[in-house]
Structure formats: structure tokens, C-alpha cells
Amino acid sequence: MNFNMTNPDQIAPSEQASKSGKAVIEIKDLYKSFGDNHVLNGFNMTLLEGENLVVMGKSGSGKSVMIKCLVGLEKPDSGTVKVLGKEINTLDQQTLDELRSDIGFLFQGSALYDSMTVRENLEFPMRRHKEKLGVVTDTEPLVREAMENVGLAHTMDLMPVELSGGMKRRIALARTLILKPKVILYDEPTSGLDPITSKEIIELMRSIQKKYGTSSLIITHDVDCARVISERMILLVDGINYAEGTYSQLSQSADSKVEAFFKK
Amino acid sequence: MGNTTTIFKGIKEFFIEIGDLSYFTARFFKEVLKPPFEFKELLRQCYQMGNRSLVLVTVTGFIIGLVLTLQSRPTLIQFGAVSWMPNMVGISIVREIGPVITALICAGRIASGIGAELGSMRVTEQIDAMEVSGTNPFKYLVITRIMATTLMLPILVVYGDLVALYGSALVENLKGDVSFQLYFNTVFDALSFADLIPATIKSVFFGFTIGLVGCYKGYYCKKGTAGVGVAANTAVVMASLLLFVVDFIAVFISDIFYEL
User: What is the structure's pLDDT at A10?
Assistant: First the structure.
């Protein structure tokens, strides 16, 4: 059952798209199952240009599966997934790789390459996209800029194992930024971090969004993170977008399933 | 009823595994000649697998040479054929024992290492991160490793053979008063291309099998840390088993061409 917002200010995503800018991500009727486990049951979503959209859901609700469908890491059973105007599931490998350079992805566990230094971690994504970045040999200025953005320029020659969880997350964010993406997908950006580091990461996400004007899709179950960063929220329940609206709209809802997200 | 179901399930899983491995192999051949080529990573892997296996291959080869000679001596003396020792040891080591033992040692060290490394990269989403950045992880991680094992194993086998022969020569020198020069001259006189070529070709396939199985198990590792352990373990078991299958096929084909 879709939750209908009672607030008259609420606008349907398609309507918003036409009002406030073009859609950079569009998901329509997304279905995905793993055997008998039906994870997504007709999920719909639109992310607008320059927008910070938070998708909240409980653990195992299919948030990560949904976000992986956006970059072609998971193939949906049915439905359409359009990113920057291109239907992900119909692209050949080369076009998909080119499109992926416009999509930044911050993984839940940072996913830094263990066998490489921080500098090599940042240089790695540039190997295939030097033309886009306009660099031929010297990648140092881009690496330095990305590392300065996250305030960790002094760690460039360290190995990931020598870094704390928060530092790893920041460097993963720097690696995401290095290809100058138009959209950044954050998979649980604050999970496993202490409250202070979480706040720092959220601040960093906001400053990056401000500086580069990227669109951000944030997958989280952290209410504080959602409150601070979201312009619009979608609650993912039972594989569908159960409710949609701003933080204040949803947090005041009387619906028991929606309330459950905001209970302290 | 329950047993029958279990048997059918086992058979089904076996064929699924064969199918998946065949698909993985086909993907390797499809992508190996397609640019871009990861030469730097290939060299790094060759160094990792070759150089770091040297000590293990040296110790194993030397002991095999020693033991084979020590255990054969009494029987050959009994038949008055101890002068055939270099011929017997040389041919058995070059044709069979050297390649198989070196490959088994490398299956234990390299296949498990690759399985664990790629498995942990899979569960910590590092492979996904590579894919999302537009870099083909199959080319960077899998092709380089399979190529490295395929190139390095024949070299390790030749090196292992020489060390094993040296071990054997040492026993003959100490116990039989045979000089090293005489021992090696006799060995090389006894060996022909029909011994060397099939053994070398066989080693190439052994190397390919070790790399392929290690990468396959690691690349498709199931989620969780337990999955990494399972990937490393099954990589060794499957690679060792397949080495004997490859060996049988190689000996069978060699027999047709060289009439062993």
C-alpha cells in the first residue's frame, strides 16, 4: 500500500521534475527477487538535478539492491532504470563504463583497494577516463585536489590498513570525486562511524554538493543523517516507495509504519 | 527418498559448477586478447607468484630428489643397475614428478592465495568499486593472475627439476662416489625432446588450471568472511583435483604423439 501524504504541499516526483529541473535518475516499477525473497516490488523514484534525496529503509529492505541496480551491479527482474537519460540495462559495456564515470558511488564499507596506497586508490579510476579528465600523464594535481577537498592530503602515501574508519570513508569520497561525477550515490555513508565522525562526513557531503553542484542519492537508516542532509525523502517499505515527502512532513506523519522510522 | 534427493542435488550442483567454470574460461579467452592490456599488473603478479614460490619449490624439489634417490638405491643395487640411477631419476623427475609436485605445491600456495585475495576483495566490495569506476575488474584481476600462473609455472617446474636433480646428484656423489659432472652428463644423455616438450607443455596447462580455479573461486566468492575461507579452501581442492585430470589427458596425448 502506498502511503498518501495528507500535506497539500507534497508534489509528485514527475511533477517536481517538470517544475524544478530535469531528472537525473528515474526508476519505474523496479522489481528484484532473490529466489523466493522479493526485495523490490515495483519501486519508483526520481532524483532531480542538484537535489539531495534520501531513501530510508530498514536493514534488508532492499536499499542497497536498488542503488546497485542504478550502476548496473545488479540486474533488475523488470522495470526501467534511467541514469542521466540513459537506460542502464540496455547499454553495451563500453557505454556503461563511460556513463559510470559520471556516477560516483560511495560504498558502505569504503571499499578502498587494500593492496594500493591512498594515492594509487585515487589514481586507479582515472586509468580509463583520462580523456574525460583532460590529463595525459600527470594525475598528481587532480589527486591532490580531491584529497584536499576531504582534508587528508597528508595521508597520500599510507596504505588503507593504516587509516581509521572515518579516514577511509573520506578517502573513498575523494576517490568518488576524482572523476568529477554529476551524480553521487551514497550507500549508508555514516554506518559504523561514531557520532562525531558521522557529523564530519555529513558536513563533507554537504560541502561537496555545494562546491560541485552534484545530485546526491543517499541510502541510509540513520535518521539524523536524513534530517540534516535531505531535501526530500522516500521511505522504502516492503519493496515499494511507501511514503515520500520532506523530513518534517514525514516525521509528523501518523502512519504507524512511517512513525516507526522516526521513533527515538 | 532423502538420500536420492541429496544425490540428485549433488549431481546438479556438480554440473552447475562445471558450467560456471566453463563460462569463466570462455570469458577469459574472450577478453585476454582485447585491449587494454594490464602489463604492469601482469609483471607484478609474475613477481609475486614466481619469486615468492621459489623457496617452497627449492625445498620441495631438493627433498624429492634426495628421497627418490635414497629409496631407489637399494633396489637398483640388488639388480646391479645402480649405474642407471641418473637415467631413472632424470626421466621420472622431468616427465612426471617434477611438474606434478611443483604444480601441487603451487596449487596449495597460489590457488589458495588468489582465492582468498579475490574473495576478500569481493566481500569488501572492492571488485564492485572497480566495476563502478568503469575499470574492468576481470581484466585487471583475473586475466593478469591467470596469465602470471600460466607463464611462471613452467619456469618454476624447470627450476624445481634442476634442484631435484641436484639433490639426487648429491646422494649419488656422497653414497656412490659419482661426480656431479658425470651425473648430469648421464641425465642429459638420457633425456630427449620427447621428455622435455610434453612436460613443459603440461606445465603451461597446470599453471593455467591453478590460476583459473583460484580466480574462479575468489571472483564468485559468496558473501561473508566464511565465504573467503571456503573460496581459498575449495580453490586448493579443486585445483589439485583438476591437475591430475590435466595430467592424465597430457600423458594420454603425449603417448599418441611420442609413443612414450
Answer: 44
Contact criterion met (CB below 8 Å) for B119 and B221: yes
Helical pair B98-106 and B144-176, crossing angle rounded to 10 deg: 130
- What was the ipTM of the complex prediction? 0.85
Q: In this structure, is residue A150 part of a structural domain?
A: no
Strand-pairing partners, residue A218, are: A54, A186
Round the CA-based radius of gyration of chain B to a whole number and report it.
21
Give pLDDT, residue B122: 93
pLDDT one-digit tens code per residue, B191-210: 888 888 889 999 999 999 99
Domain ranges of chain B: 39-258
Residue A220 domain boundaries? 23-102+216-264
Which residue does chain A place closest to B35, by CA atoms?
A128
Number of domains in chain A: 1
Contact residues, chain B, for A103 at CB < 8 Å: 132
**Cβ–Cβ below 8 Å for B132 and A129:** no
Q: Which residue has the cell 639388480?
A: B79
Q: Under an 8 A CB cutoff, do B132 and A71 touch?
A: yes
pTM as predicted? 0.86
The pLDDT, as a whole number, for residue B176 is 85
DSSP string covering chain B: -HHHHHHHHHHHHHHHHHHHHHHHHHHHHHHTTSSPP-HHHHHHHHIIIIITTHHHHHHHHHHHHHHHHHHHHHHHHHTT-GGGHHHHHHHHIIIIIHHHHHHHHHIIIIIHHHHHHHHHHHHTTHHHHHHHTT--HIIIIIIHHHHHHHHHHHHHHHHHHHHHHHHHHHHHHHHH---HHHHHHHHHHH--HHHHHHHHHHHHHHHHHHHHHHHHHHHTPPSSHHHHHHHHHHHHHHHHHHHHHHHHHHHHHHHHHH--
Q: What is the CATH number of the domain that holds A96?
A: 3.40.50.300
Partners of A97 on chain B (C-beta within 8 Å) are 134-136
Query: Would you say residue A82 lies in a domain?
Result: yes
CA distance to partner chain B, nearest, from residue A30 (Å): 20
Q: Is B83 exposed, middle or buried (0-12, 13-18, 19+ CB in 10 A)?
A: exposed
Domain assignment present for residue A126? The answer is: no
Residues near B36 by beta carbon (within 8 Å), at least 6 away in sequence: A128, B139
Nearest CA in chain B to A122: B133
Does residue A159 sit within a domain? no
pLDDT by position in tens, chain A (length 264):
344 443 334 444 444 444 457 889 999 999 999 988 899 999 999 999 989 999 998 888 889 899 999 999 999 999 999 999 999 989 988 899 889 989 999 998 889 999 899 999 998 888 777 666 666 567 888 888 889 888 888 999 999 999 998 899 999 999 998 888 999 999 998 888 888 888 888 988 888 888 888 999 999 988 888 888 889 999 999 889 899 999 999 888 888 888 888 876
